[in-house]
């Protein structure tokens, strides 16, 4: 593979034309595309024949949770009205430092997605209002890992007790098995 | 205002002997003759050493040396904003400027004094136009600048250092910011003053003396912040500002190289492991 071109913020990449589209890490100005990240240049060929110009950094990109993002969280507090959680990763990218999130009671039951804002000063507001969202791993009161038996119930293998959880139907593309 | 009540200070009428060292008359002579102590021409800037990615625990970092002035900078973030009152849908940038206690002729306090708080604000003003704050809503980026040795122009060196550190941290920016300062006397303009040449309000209170520091975004050709002290004639201030802009444009490749080198190093170390 040829040595990739390294870009620096403020560096002019190319002219903004019909065939070029600017992607992440770039911004358009005065008819040219400039880089806004320190990293290396990536050009993707689209189906339309357009090339997408991106600048990628080496390690995890600095992600911050945004609206409509799918995040992985760990629940820290449970309350009758809502539960507090720590956002551990956004999509596939793990965060270096966790952000605070909140799941309200009404957002677990609803099957329609309301227009949820990005949250308030304390924390981000999350919802599990889709079939594929919900609890992924849980421990029972006895301490064993719960196994899902339906979309709303999980069973403890030791005590055979059933507990209510909104179970997530995790998409295969999000699952990465250890060791592969 | 938090003061240091735990340390034992000497008797109240004791003073630092370095006050007796500096001869005011020779200092003024250096500036009036138009010749500088280190042999530089008035418009000549000191040679720069700049390296990025030197603090492993920080998200991004940089170190700059301009002859004897040594400054290092660490950038953390985007992190969660912990204070409730500072909630905003845009990202936040906070800067902290600190002289190390051993960095100046007179020993500095451990806590930030007014001058350092002032520099912190100026640094933030200069860096904010360059950073794409809309890319990290509800989060903050912290910039910590420590001056290890102060031999003049600490703010200009910190500006350069901080923008390289921000780029090294992977924070999206419109452009890098280059800092440069100039000392203005009634007759001449000196670029990049050393500590003995620099403007001090208590010593140089004749009219026509002052200094100017500015931060330039070379690719956009925009000045992100400019600050000046003293009482100067407009023509000389104009000349000083223009010369600073030229110097910043000349220094831009040094910054680009430092940032690119750090990206390269990271790339090659990732291929090895």
UniProtKB/TrEMBL annotation, chain A:
Keyword Cytoplasm found: no
GO biological process: RNA processing
Pfam families recorded: ECR1_N (PF14382)
UniProt domain Exosome complex component N-terminal: residue ranges: 6-42
Any coiled-coil regions, as ranges: none
Keyword Cell membrane: no
Superkingdom of source: Eukaryota
InterPro entries to which the protein is assigned, alphabetical: Csl4 (IPR039771), Exosome_cplx_N_dom (IPR025721), NA-bd_OB-fold (IPR012340)
GO cellular component, one term: cytoplasm
Main location group: nucleus
PANTHER family in alphabetical order: 3'-5' EXORIBONUCLEASE CSL4-RELATED, EXOSOME COMPLEX COMPONENT CSL4
Name recorded for this polypeptide: Exosome complex component N-terminal domain-containing protein
TrEMBL record, chain B:
Localisation: Cytoplasm; Nucleus, Nucleolus
GO cellular component, one term: cytoplasmic exosome (RNase complex)
Ranges where the Exoribonuclease phosphorolytic domain occurs: 44-172
Pfam families reported in the protein's UniProt record: RNase_PH
Keywords: Cytoplasm, Exosome, Nucleus, RNA-binding, rRNA processing
Gene Ontology BP terms: nuclear mRNA surveillance; poly(A)-dependent snoRNA 3'-end processing; rRNA catabolic process; rRNA processing; U4 snRNA 3'-end processing
InterPro entries registered for this protein in UniProt: ExoRNase_PH_dom1, ExoRNase_PH_dom2_sf, PNPase/RNase_PH_dom_sf, Ribosomal_Su5_D2-typ_SF, RNase_PH
UniProt cross-references to CDD domains, sorted A to Z: RNase_PH_MTR3
One Gene Ontology term of the molecular function aspect: RNA binding
Chief localisation class: cytoplasm
Tagged with keyword Lyase: no
Family named by the database record: Belongs to the RNase PH family.
Subunit structure as annotated in this protein's UniProt entry: Component of the RNA exosome complex.
Annotated function: Non-catalytic component of the RNA exosome complex which has 3'->5' exoribonuclease activity and participates in a multitude of cellular RNA processing and degradation events.
Protein name: Exosome complex component MTR3
Upper taxonomic lineage: Eukaryota, Metazoa, Spiralia, Lophotrochozoa, Mollusca
């Amino acid at each position: 593979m040829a040595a990739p071109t390294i870009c620096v913020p403020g560096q002019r990449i190319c002219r903004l034309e019909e065939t070029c589209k600017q992607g992440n890490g770039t911004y358009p100005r005065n008819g040219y595309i400039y880089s806004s990240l320190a990293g290396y240049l990536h050009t993707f060929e689209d189906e339309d024949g357009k090339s997408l110009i991106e600048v990628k950094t080496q390690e995890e990109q600095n992600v911050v949770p945004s609206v409509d993002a799918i995040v992985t969280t760990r629940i820290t507090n449970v309350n009758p009205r809502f539960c507090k959680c720590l956002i551990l990763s956004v999509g596939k990218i793990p965060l270096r430092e966790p952000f605070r999130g909140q799941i309200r009671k009404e957002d677990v039951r609803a099957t329609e997605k309301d227009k949820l804002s990005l949250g308030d000063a304390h924390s981000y507001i999350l919802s599990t209002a889709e079939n594929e969202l919900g609890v992924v791993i849980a421990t029972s009161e006895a301490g064993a890992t719960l196994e899902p038996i339906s979309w709303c119930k999980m069973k403890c293998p030791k005590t055979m007790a059933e507990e209510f959880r909104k179970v997530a139907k995790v998409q295969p593309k999000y699952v990465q098995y250890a060791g592969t | 205002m938090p003061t240091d009540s735990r340390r034992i200070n000497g008797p109240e009428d004791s003073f630092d002997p370095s006050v007796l060292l500096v001869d005011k008359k020779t200092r003024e002579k250096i500036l009036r003759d138009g010749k500088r102590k280190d042999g530089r021409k008035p418009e000549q800037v000191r040679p720069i050493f700049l390296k990025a990615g030197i603090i492993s625990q920080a998200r991004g970092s940089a170190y700059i040396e301009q002859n004897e002035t040594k400054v290092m900078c660490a950038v953390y973030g985007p992190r969660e904003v912990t204070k409730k009152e500072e909630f905003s849908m845009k990202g936040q940038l906070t800067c902290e400027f600190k002289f190390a206690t051993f960095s100046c002729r007179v020993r500095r306090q451990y806590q930030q004094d007014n001058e350092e708080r002032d520099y912190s604000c100026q640094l933030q003003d200069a860096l904010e136009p360059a950073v794409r704050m809309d890319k990290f809503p509800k989060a903050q980026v912290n910039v910590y600048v420590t001056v290890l040795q102060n031999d003049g122009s600490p703010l200009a060196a910190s500006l350069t250092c901080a923008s390289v550190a921000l780029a090294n941290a992977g924070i999206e920016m419109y452009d890098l910011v280059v800092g440069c300062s100039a000392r203005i006397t009634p007759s001449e303009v000196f670029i990049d003053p050393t500590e003995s040449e620099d403007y001090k309000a208590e010593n140089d209170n004749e009219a026509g003396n002052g200094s100017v520091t500015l931060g330039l975004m070379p690719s956009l050709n925009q000045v992100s912040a400019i600050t000046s002290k003293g009482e100067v004639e407009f023509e000389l201030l104009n000349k000083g500002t223009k010369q600073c802009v030229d110097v910043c444009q000349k220094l831009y490749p040094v910054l680009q190289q430092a940032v690119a080198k750090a990206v390269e190093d990271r790339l090659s170390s990732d291929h090895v492991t």
